[in-house]
Amino acid sequence: MLSYNFMQNALFVSVFISILCPCIGIFLVLRRYSMIGDTLSHASLAGVTIGLMCGQNPVLGAFLFTSFCGALIEFLRSYFKKYTDLILTVVLSLSVGTAITIISSGKLHANADSFLFGSILTVTKFDMAMVLILSLISVLTLIVLYHQMIYIAYDEEAAKVAGVRVRLINYIFSILVASAISISIRIVGVLVLSSMIALPVATALQLEKGFRHTFLFSIVFSFLDIMLGLFLSYYLNVAPGGFTALVSVAMLVLVLAGKQIAKRVRSFKGSPVS
Amino acid sequence: MFMIQASNLFFSYTGSPPYVLNDISLEISDGDYVSVVGENGCGKSTLMRLILKFIKPTGGAIESKAKRIGYVPQKNDFSNANFPITVSEMLHSYRKLLKIKDKSVVASGIAQVGMNGFENALVGTLSGGQGQKILIARALLGNPDLLILDEPSTGVDMESQKEIYGFLKKLNREKGITIVSVEHNLNAAIANSTFLYHLAAGRGHLCTPEQYTKEYLHGEKKGESNAQL
Predict the structure, then answer these.
(1) Whole-model pTM?
(2) Residue A176 falls within a domain, yes or no?
(3) Cβ of B124 under 8 Å from any chain A Cβ?
């Protein structure tokens, strides 16, 4: 299987996706913003269609338009303080509206369908270069801003008192989210991308550990989900994105079940002998 | 020398009247322990947020000379009770934000509030009193000259309340840290503060604990304060 060139490319991109998505996802989930992932993945579809229409690389188009939408969400936050969920509806409407209008206009120079469901056949060398560059920039930025990001997610006011430039970091984070999404849409697809961002984190949270361990376990679960999804989808001849989402759900259910069993075993061991 | 000075301070969340804070002038000196008291909605927390610069005045000015501010939010304010973070991680991350290189300040901070042995506990699993102590330890990282607290006794059992107020008093009297505390606990405010700042209908009055007891609890202004004794 790995002798195929397209599979090697897919594997290369998948490794980066499996690291980057939970790195971004943990902050989105802990800030109760996991739906932003869903909104921005739809924004990436609009970016893909704009890129294809202009004859440019669709991943680049996705990155630019998703970054714009991420910054727009942050900007609108100060206008819709009491109805923040409305912001996502506004950006979702803008994105899906743009995507459908461009697709239905017939002006696309290529097919955008593969971005909806994800495909391992369509990863190009240019995509791989972009994945490498964006991933490295994102991971380096996350390392530099690690403690600031934790505090913005945990206690934004304390972060402000400590002198953290919360607004600026929120804008930078929007671009990181856009970067993770645009890297992932090729293989995972727009429709299930938010599950790659949220589910490994949801699974790691079940272990009830501190931040560092939750973070590391999110990456481990994400890697397992995506690798299993990629290889099994190859043998089953189905889209990798959809199948990876199923694997992620199965992993979450497994961990939840394991947790329940461990709890029962503990209470059984601890119960007094009659 | 003043630590906090407000002159002709107005604040309204809409930017126009009615004002939550209406023409307030206040001076808190270096080394004071001021408890801000008053009914719910009188503007206590708004005043605290103005000092912390979370919000800007609608009119007038408020200035703080503090080189470093320590802030203790209300423990119950956290919407993030299930956030996966240990006591040690929470304090070390904050240390990093304050750019303190010496790692040992975290261990000594934990010891200072008597929370040794809780380093690896998840913050969300701590009791009200334990959580409040850790928040105080965090606020004290970096040796602040001004400590601002938002209702430090909310959700805290009586025994821990005693410990916390005793510790705050010690910080103020022995280390000279200026303390501004938004208070519902009038008993604690009278027993520990050097001044009380009574807010009502957007206006404030700074007085000593003795004056407060005489005027608001036994004198002509009796009934203006419904804070819990």
Answers:
(1) 0.86
(2) yes
(3) no
